[in-house]
Amino acid sequence: MKHMFERHIYYNVFFKLSSSCLNCPVIEEFRAGNSVRKYYRDLQNLKILALSFDPYCIHNTDKFVDSIKDVSDASCLLEDAESARDHERAMLMLDSLPICCGLFNNRLEMVDCNRATVNFFQCSGKIETCERIFEMFPERQPDGRLSSDAAFLELNKAFETGYNQVEWTFLLPDGSLVPAEVIIVKISCGDSDMLATYTRDLRHEKALRAAHDEANELIRLMFEAIPICCNLWDDQYNNIECNMEAVKLFDLSSKSEYLVRFFELSPEKQPCGEPSVSKAFRHIRQAFMSGYNRFEWMHKKLDGELIPAEVTLVRINRGDRYIVAGYTRDLRKEKLLKEAKEAALQAAQRDPLTRLYNKTTTQMMIEDTLVGPDSVGRHAIVCIDLDNFKAVNDKFGHLFGDQILVEISGIIKSAFRSDDIIGRFGGDEFIVFIRDVLDSDVVKAKLDLLCSKINKIYKLGDMEQTVSASIGVAFYPDDGKRYVDLYRNADFASYYAKKIGKNRYVFWKECMNKFTTKNDDDYGKII
User: Fold this and answer.
1) Which of the residues 140, 316, 482, 496 has the least number of beta carbons within 10 Å of its own beta carbon?
2) φ and ψ at 439, to 5 degrees?
3) Which residues of 369-397 are buried (b: 16+ CB within 10 A; e: fewer)?
4) Residue 484: exposure state from Cβ atoms within 10 A (0-12, 13-18, ≥19)
């Protein structure tokens, strides 16, 4: 071994790890893959020499090649100390990296790695990791390629192009498969090229991606399961998605047809007269600004059938931007049900012949007004009793009589405001409740006009009959505060108008002292 200790000379020395040298501290350091700097005695010259050992494991063997240098000289020691510090810092940086790093020579053998690689592959040290790296693959990769062939193919590709990035599956000693991303970079090392590999464990990322995909699938299923038409608008007001309920609502063939032909699914103008396209964009813009918008909308199927709908727009987050979700509720059944209810209510509240309120409804509405907020005002009840009408039914029959009643009902409606209460009390008697009477002269003017319009000859074919009206008026609260009192007094006044000549109106104040009770015989004579 004396030639090994000549100063300032480098030697490449091969060691075989045999049982005869297991206790050699240098060999133990070799096993750990460490550079060794030890002080040994020169047995020939009886002095201490400082030697540097830098081992390198020969792949798939139990042999090591080592460079040995005599560093006893002070200048050499200083130079080597600086190199050692640089090497130590580099190794510290490499070992502190949170991803696996490896180094391959041009024979595609792994010659070094960092501590993260050792831990990742569950090995005892770097040497074991380098020796067993090609054992850490399943037989085949997920794409079906043989791992051994694919590994050499990808490494060679990096040597040819200088860079390669690939997804790879490793097989750890505990039997678990680990998906990873491997980046391979060609680097220069002295006179030769090597490959540096950087391996990133993708298990967490793929788990997150799988969870994300599952969440998206659940959202898609929920979106499709919503029992009303849904669609999505991006921030450029593009209709980007819909569910199958949207397709069904408009009897379309596919989602794409709905998305492409959306603005054909509304009439040119909405019931308010505004163009549908501009109004739609205005509503969408409002939803983006405020986060919420609800309104009624008139849609139209391609065959022309109108679909009244309620549309709700909700702004939602999508990554770093907003989108708007639209929910369209078909109101056709609701509108039909509402119309049916209104028709039933009309039938219950209205006189079937004249379509005026019937007696019960008229009384209820007047009583509600007298006890409600409007009770502080001044109102009037007007009782209208037709003159000579009994002769019409007796002489010409009810067909002619009904025609006269319908015509006179129209005259009465046209004489009063829409918020006044107008009802038919049965037979030839009508009642009007005039709200907010500020001046009695206004009531007189209305009744003068009403008497003149009712008083005329009514005809049906060859049949003719003159009909007029006797009218009585009572004021709230002057002539009574309860409905029964006001109606009784207005009725007395109409009776008195009929008694004194018909075709006129009388205020209760003008006749309040004329009668205390009604006499049925007098009524009969007057009629």
Assistant:
1) 316
2) -145, 130
3) bbeeeeeeeebbbbbbbbbebeebbeebe
4) exposed
CA distance 61 to 18: 12
Give SS3 for 269: strand
| Residue whose pair of structure tokens reads 């015989």 in the numeric block | 521
Tokens of 312: 């709700």
CA-wise closest residue to 255 among 229, 235, 276: 229
Cα R_g (the chain), whole angstroms? 52
- Cα angle 392, 523, 456; round to 5: 35
Residues of each domain in the chain carrying CATH 3.30.450.20: 97-206, 226-335
Q: Which residues lie below 8 Å from residue 387, measured CB to CB, with a gap of 6+?
A: 467, 468, 469, 470, 498, 502, 503
Using a 10 angstrom Cβ sphere, with 0-12 exposed, 13-18 middle and 19 or more buried, the burial of residue 35 is middle
How far apart are alpha carbons 407 and 354 in whole angstroms?
9
Indicate the burial class of 84 (C-beta count within 10 angstroms; 0-12, 13-18, 19 or more): middle
Helix (H) or strand (E) holding 40, with range, is: strand 36-42
Q: Is the confidence at residue 316, as pLDDT, over 80?
A: yes
Token match 């813009």: residue?
285
Length, in residues, of the chain? 527
Q: Which fold has domain 97-206?
A: Beta-Lactamase (3.30.450)
Residues 398-452 pLDDT 10s: 899 999 999 999 999 999 999 999 999 988 999 999 999 988 999 999 999 999 9
Within the chain, what is the greatest distance between any pair of CA atoms?
164
Class of the 226-335 domain? alpha beta
Query: Which pair of tokens denotes residue 145?
Result: 């390629």
Which amino acid would we find at residue 164?
A: N
pTM of the model: 0.50
Ranges for all domains in the chain classified under CATH 3.30.70.270: 350-526
Residue 468 CB partners (closer than 8 Å, separation 6+): 386, 387, 388, 451, 454, 455, 502, 503
User: Which CATH superfamily includes the segment(s) 350-526?
Assistant: Reverse transcriptase/Diguanylate cyclase domain (3.30.70.270)
**Pairing state between β 36-42 and 47-57:** antiparallel
Interval 263-292: pLDDT, tens: 999 999 999 999 999 999 999 999 999 999
Other residues' Cβ atoms within 10 Å of the Cβ of residue 498: 24
Q: CB count, 10 Å around CB of 9?
A: 11
Map tokens 């008026």 to a residue. Answer: 473
pLDDT at 299 > cutoff 90: yes
The Cα 306–Cα 270 span in angstroms is 11
User: Residue 206 corresponds to which tokens in the numbers above?
Assistant: 């793929």
Helix (H/G/I), strand (E/B), else coil: 506: strand
The 3 state secondary structure assigned to 205-253 is HHHHHHHHHHHHHHHHHHHHHCCCEEEEECCCCCEEEECHHHHHHCCCC
The Cα angle at residue 281 between residues 279 and 287, in degrees rounded to 5: 105
pLDDT band of 120, cuts 50, 70, 90: very high
Instruction: Give the C-alpha separation, 384 to 364, whole Å.
Output: 19
- Tokens representing 439 are 């001046």
